[in-house]
Amino acid sequence: MMSNTSLLIVDADPRRPEEFRTQLKSGAYVLHAAKSVREALATLSSTHINLLLCNADLPGNEAFELLEQVRRRFPQTVVLMFTAFGTIDGAVEAIRLGAYDYLTTPVSAEDLRLALERAAAQHALLAEHRKLKRELELRFGLESLVGHDYRMLKLFELIETVADSTVSVLIQGPSGTGKSLTARVIHRLSSRRDRPFVEVSVAAIPEALIESELFGHVRGAFTGALSSKPGKFRAADGGTIFLDEIGAASPALQVKLLRVLQERQFEPVGSNRTERVDIRVICATNADLEAEARAGRFREDLFYRINVIALELPPLCERLGDIPLLAEFFLRQHAGPRRALEGFSIEAMSALQAYPWPGNVRELANVVERCAILARGSRIEFSDLPARIVEPLGSPALRGARSARGTLREALNEAERLIIEAALSTHGGNRQSAARQLGVDRTTLYKKMRRFGIRAVGRGRRRRNPQTSAPPPRNIQEASPASASSATTSGATTSNTRTSSALTGPTR
Ligand SMILES: Nc1ncnc2c1ncn2[C@@H]1O[C@H](COP(=O)(O)OP(=O)(O)OP(=O)(O)O)[C@@H](O)[C@H]1O
Ligand SMILES: [Mg+2]
User: Fold this and answer.
1) All domains of the chain, ordered by start, with CATH?
2) Residue 264: left if φ>0, alpha if ψ -120 to 50, beta else—which one?
3) Which of 181, 256, 342, 417 is the most buried (most CB within 10 A)?
4) Whose CA is nearest to atom 29 of ligand 1?
């Protein structure tokens, strides 16, 4: 049995916990007691409880209401019920609602001990299952959040740790990095997952309406308020409210938000009746809120209140390793039964990794969707990518260097070789002109040509490929078959060949 299993006993009779303690004797349980559902929920919120033993005969239907709430909000807690008036119906109902066991009192010390031991084993099993599932998710992401860059892995760990608490979370990061998605994942991983997730974009609602939108209003509160309307905070009761673009909150709204965050209470517009809510608050911003607070543009007290846990989403260009994973993930979403899409050619993937992604993951998702629709083959090729991604990559020489693998020295040599070949071919093999263009003297150029095994590309060879109007061999395979080794796989070689005719031209 697990040592130090925490056990919460819920019974209106204050003598009950002592009675069970005497029966259990062993120090294997840390006992907690609650006399009502409210007290039980408070303990569950503040303490990690493994097992809950509840009197089914609490007034009204309270015991079953508690059981339902525990199943929903604290699914890791295993519930047992006990009753002095055991009926088959009661037992069936308890088990149907998710109780693990149903005992009839008086219960012998032996039966109580056995029931709790079985429940503790069940708890351990559930915990192990959750751990394995988490480990699996952490390899490639968390829920629908994909990533394996070390900063993302750290973030996933933090999300997992804080998801099931009520601490406020502030998610920061540039647009399109996944802030809204992260907020939804936190909600889904929390015990509030079956309660509402209410999203409010503070910047999108006009200032005159935002208070009524968030806190609701009573009839006649302002011109046009023909009936009372509950606000978003009320709608989110029991669940999570996500305040997106919190940095756009006006000073007046900031004061109101501070109060609701501190006291979990507010008054609807036009009313002096205070309402209480049980909510988890997640905020997001793409502004540097700390700097805003320092500059006096955002209340510091509110900043510290919402920033209890800070999650920083890095821009996509700072996690290049995640690009292949995300691109494949988005591609899978668009490949249907009619259309098998195998993935990306090496050159296409290199181009995706070379692009700076100002629109971050959102932009990548859109690009992959476009490619999936327009791609002609079963694989996304370099030529399937939008112009804004391929054009800055410039000449084939630079593209080749970008897709080169190996050490920095090897990559630099490769780039140098390709640039020399390109210059030679531009000048029809004329070494003097090529040297002039490259800003080196002819001897240096000869030496480098020998070192890289570049054979002279004579004027006579310009016509080698009569089908194309492009200048002679700019494509690395044509210029020097031996040097094609820089392309890492036959896939890349094929794609180089295919794309060169489309992309190389006199202006490139
Ligand atoms: N790590 C990720 N894994 C999978 N999908 C992601 C990831 N990050 C972002 N996305 C997807 O990218 C798109 C943009 O993400 P999201 O809307 O969460 O960004 P945001 O940071 O909230 O942007 P904004 O600041 O513009 O509101 C969404 O379609 C989202 O599902
Ligand atoms: Mg967003």
Assistant:
1) 5-131 (3.40.50.2300), 165-314 (3.40.50.300), 317-392 (1.10.8.60), 400-503 (1.10.10.60)
2) left
3) 417
4) 362
